[in-house]
Structures are given as structure tokens and as C-alpha cells.
Amino acid sequence: MTTASQPVDSHDDETTRTRRPPGWLLVFLIYLALGVFVWWHAWSGGPSVTMAGGSPDPAQHLWSLAWALHAIERGANPFFTRAIYAPEGANLLDNSSILAVGVMFAPVTALFGPIVSFNVAVTLAPVASSVAAFFAINRHARWQPAAFVGGLCYGFGPFAATDLRFGHLHLTFLAVPPLICLALDDLFVRRRRPPLRVGVILGVLVIVQFFISTELLALTVIIGFTAVAVLALTHRSQALAAARFAAPGLATGFCVAAAALAYPAWFAVSGPRHFTGPVFSSINNLTATLAASVVPHGELPGVRFISGGNGAYLGAPLLLVLVVARFVWRRDATLRFAMVMAAIAYLASLGSTLRVTQASTGIPLPASVFSHLPVLDSIIPSHFGVFVDFFVGMALAVVLDRIHDGELGALAGLAGRRLAGSDAPAGRRLGVSQAGARTPQLGLVCGVTAAIALVPMLLLPPWPYPVRHVAEPPIFRQRAITSLGPGSIVMEYPTAFAADGAPLLWQAVGGITYELSDGYGLVPGVGGRATEQPPVDVLSLVFAAAALGTLKVPLSASTDLAIRHVIAQIHVAALVVTPGAKGSVLVTSVFTRILGRPTQRLDGAAVWLLPGKRPGQP
Predict the structure, then answer these.
(1) Which one, 5, 191, 204, 446, has the greatest CB density within 10 A?
(2) Domain boundary among 336, 363, 395
């Protein structure tokens, strides 16, 4: 035992510190364990045969992972494809194609297939987001457990947790925005690193985010400029010096990003099969509401449909903790900044008009300006929730950091001198010994505060997420399908939209060796406006009636003739009717009447091979 008269062996102390693993590694491992937990059903049920369900969206993102590998292997244009919506194809930059994520996970896709790759991606998405937020927040909340809580609020918070349920990788792979915040912090606040180097990093981050989600990039730019403006208004004396230091870095970042994104940006807005106008015609119905922030499952029906849950929910306990903290530490500049930014992001998430509950009050809000600007008119207001979670997480981390540091003087003053006695030293009253060591009571207070704030929010998602079993119909492994080759168009029933994205799923699993006449995404429709479905024809009407159970057979001779014309016009090489779906039997009877008996049957699936081939293909 070392006494005061015995010198401490500094070499042993240094060795102990060297061998101790870094705190961020433990943080990463905890986040990783949480990521596996939330997708436990996928991993325990077999990651190659289970995946997220509930909508066609998971199949769309899984297909995007397969497409990235396909484009790399074949040298294809990654921005455009005729593999779906053939023969016209689809502009992938107008869709949530997550090309950067697809390239990142291409080795996993190549080794284990797109289903496993998708499960790895959705497991790591909240982990990467949380770790990035941890590093960004740790600059302002130096106590790592506090920064851990802030990262948890971001990567596993209400916004990410609801969209992750549907496998929305473009909205849940959120690692880049916190890193952009770090770069802006280096340029405008700390100003310690060479601005040109930071500018290059900033430009690269913008490029990566563009190829994950252009919408989220737009949101990040809006919030980034707003954050800089807030800092300039609250630190006027330093604003000019900060601007002069940051200018070369911003210019460098702009040049790097512009050089790399000039062609992709043009392709997105003017390239083949691009569309005009907003992505959704009902953008104003995809907003947060005041009630949704404190009422579980109080979101609008449209928001529930596109995200699978209430991404705006924060919970009354968390809001109460922040309100009290803002009053206690009202002079804390970092806490004030975080809460101001959270409030701005929250106001933007409410959309064009204020909604207390479901109905609009008609009171206009600042976000209404976005609906009148090109490109920005496609921003879904509720998606600003990602930055609500980030800045709320930062604010909560700062509060825990201040408590841990014993900065409870204001709170003690509110309680009066009886809190610890007027003669007690300030440090002892605040839970810090006279020697400067923090007492265990402070850690307990931090833990209780974090639990009160986060537990209601973390209990809202259906964790572990429900999954569905995926079993590829054996017909897609038969030579009749696998030997079709490039340019061969396959028409399937049920369609991609009606069959929970199954046609895209089987096409991806098979390596995208043929083209689909339909798809699940956005293509230009009437007047060049965005639509999820190609132009309506007689065959699509027959498919829709079969799916609804209203199809009456036999069809008229004129209808039969019209169906023949559509099949010939599209140059369909194979018609596939998979079993088990509503209307499959009726559609099989329709094609049998028109085309004769199926070329092949297997486990209830029927295939008609036709001489069709897209013009210009071998």
C-alpha cells in the first residue's frame, strides 16, 4: 500500500493507463450489443432467411444493396437502371438508392447475399449513427457516459427507431450529419486545425451523404447554416474572426463536393427518367404535431404509413428534465445552443401549418417556405426530427455532464440553504469532496436523471423488431428463369407493390440477371410528376382487380386481345405467377386462356416463356 511518504511508481501507472482500452471502444461495443438486440429476431431466426417486414420498403433497400454490387461487377451506370420498370427504367438518384451504403456493404453482399447484407446494414446503422453522435457530443460533454447517452438518443432515438423498423437505410444510416457538425465546429468554434484540411473532409462528407440520401443532405445543409447563424448572433464579438478562419475551409469543401457531384446532381434533376415537382403530393400531411411529442402513437396517419411509428415522440419526462435544466443552467452557452437548435428543428418538423393534434389550425409556420422552392419542396417536414433527436441528445448529455461535475449550485440555491447547511463548503454541498473527487451520489443522480428522461422514449418502439421469413420460390432457381439473360423482361404477379416487394427481392437474390416490368420506387408519370406506378394499361387493371378480389373471368375477347398487345409491346420474355397471393389462381387462368398452358409449373408457380427480348439486346 502506498503512503504519503512513498513515491508513486509513475511507470506502473502509465502502463495501467496504456493497457486500459479506450472509452470509445466500450461505447461502441454497447451500441453494437443494442443493435443486435433490436434485430434479435432476424439474427436468431437466420439472417439469410429473415428480414424486416410490414411494407415493400425493406425489399426496395435490399434491392439497392444488390444493385450496387451488380453495378460494380458489370461496370453499369450506378445512377440508372432498366432492371426495374423495364423497358423505360428508373433514375436511381431520384430514389432512395443508398449507393454509398451499397458500396460500403458490397463485400458482404458478394460473400453472403443481399439478405444477410441487409441485416448487417440495419444492425450497424444505429450503431454507426450513435458512435458518430457520441464523438460530436463528447466535445461539449466531456464525461463519456454523458456523451454515450446523447449518442443513444440520436442513433436509437424515436426518429431512427421508427424508420429503422421498415429498413429505411437512407434515413437511419445517420453517421454523416454528426461528422459534418464536427467539421463545422472545427471551422467556426475551435479553429485549431488547418481550415483547408477540414474543408476537404467536409467536402468528402457531403459527397458521401449525397449518395446516402439527398433529402437528408438538404436537411443537414439547412440545419448547418442555421447553427452557424445562431452562433454568430450569440457570439457577435467573435463572429467576424470565425468567418475569416472558416471561409477557406468552406470554399475548399464546396469545390471538392461540387467537382464530384456536378454530374450526379445534373443526372438527378435533368437526367433520363427524372421527374419534376415534389415526391409526394401530400407533403403537408407528413408532419409532426404538438401532441405527438408527448403522446405515444399520436402521429398523423401519413407519418405512421411512411415511417412505421411516431418519430416525433420525446416524452414528457425528457422535456421536463430539459426545461428544468435550462432554468438551472440558464447561463450555460452550450446548453442554450443545443436547446435553441432543437427548438428550431422541432418547429421545422411541424411543417407549413401548426397542428396540435390531427387537424391543422391554419396557423402558418416558417417551414411553409420550403413548399415554394424547387428540390426543397420534396422535403418531408417530419424528417427534421433527426436533428431534434441530435440536439436533444446533446442537451441531455450536457445536463448529465454538468451534474457529474458537481455544478448544482443554482439548483442548491433554489432549494435554500437547508439543502446542506450554510456552513458546508460549496464543493461538499454539490457532491464533490474537498479534494476534488466526485462522490458516488453524483453518478447516481446522473443515472436516475438519464433513466427518467430516456426510458419512456426507449420503450415506445417494438423492440426487438418483428421480422418475416423469406423463402425464394423454387421457380426462380430453375433454368427457365436463370438463363434468360440481360435484356429479358419478366412480368410477375403479384406485382412488386402488391407483393410486399417480393419481385424485387427475388430479382436481387438471383443477382439481377433479368429485368422487371414493374418495380417499387418513383418514376415520371403524367406531366413528368412523380408516381410509384408506370402508366395504367389493361394488364395492370387486371392485376389490380385480381389483388382486390374483383376480377371476373373469363375476360372478353377484346380484353384478351389488349393483354396480348401489352405483352408484345413490352417485349416480355417470361410471365411468372407465384402461388399463395390473392388472385394468383385467377391470373393463371387468364394467361392460360390467352397463351395456352404454362411452359413450366413448380410448387404452384406457373411460367410462360415467350420470344420477347428488349430491342438492341443479344
Answers:
(1) 446
(2) 395
List alpha helices for 501-537, DSSP H.
502-509
Q: Are strands 523-524 and 605-609 parallel, antiparallel or unpaired?
A: unpaired
Provide the pLDDT confidence category of residue 611 given band limits of 50, 70 and 90. Answer: confident
Side-chain-side CA neighbours of 288 within 13 Å: the count stands at 30
d(CA 168, CA 174): 11
426 is a domain residue: no
Residues 203 and 324 in one domain: yes
Same domain, 389 and 536: no
Output helix, strand, coil percentages for the chain, rounded to the nearest 5. Answer: 60, 10, 35
Q: Distance between CA atoms of 174 and 220, rounded to whole angstroms?
A: 11
On whether both 479 and 384 belong to a single domain, the answer is no
- Residue 369 vs residue 250, higher pLDDT: 250
Burial class from Cβ neighbours inside 10 Å (0-12, 13-18, 19+) for residue 420 reads middle
Q: What are phi and psi of 84, to 5 degrees?
A: -130, 160
Confirm whether 171 is domain-assigned: yes
User: φ, ψ for residue 601 (rounded to 5)?
Assistant: -130, 140
Mean pLDDT of 492-513: 89
What's the gap between Cα 71 and its chain centre? 23
Are residues 341 and 488 located together in one domain of the fold?
no
The three-class DSSP label of residue 572 is strand
- The reply to whether 356 and 479 lie within a common domain is no
Above 70 in pLDDT, residue 14?
A: no
List, as one string, the DSSP characters of 45-111.
T-TTTEEE-SSSHHHHHHHHHHHHHHHHHHT--TTEESSSSTTT-EEGGGTT--HHHHHHTHHHHHH
- Tens digits of residue pLDDT in 246-282: 999 999 999 999 999 999 999 999 999 998 888 877 7
Q: What is the pLDDT of residues 172-201, one digit of tens each?
A: 999 999 999 999 999 999 999 999 999 999
pLDDT digits (tens, 9 = 90+) for 312-336: 999 999 999 999 999 999 999 999 9
The grid cell for 522 is 418513383
341 vs 210: CA distance, rounded Å: 23
Tell me the average pLDDT of the chain: 89
Residue span of the structural domain in which 122 resides: 39-274+282-395
Q: Is residue 467 a part of any domain in this protein?
A: no
Cα–Cα distance, 59 to 63 (Å, whole number): 6
First to last CA, the chain: 84
Same domain, 382 and 504: no
Quote the number of domains for the chain: 2
- pLDDT for 607 beyond 70: yes
Q: For residue range 105-142, what is the model confidence (pLDDT) as tens digits?
A: 999 999 999 999 999 999 999 999 999 999 999 999 99
Final residue of a structural domain among 395, 413, 434: 395
Residue tagged 440508372 (cell numbers):
80
CA angle at residue 68 from 65 to 72, to 5 degrees?
145
Same-domain pairing of 498 and 384: no
The answer to whether 441 and 430 have CB atoms below 8 angstroms apart is: no
Which three cell numbers, joined as nine digits, stand for 187?
A: 471551422
| Per-residue pLDDT tens over the stretch 402-440 | 999 886 554 544 444 444 444 444 444 445 544 445 567
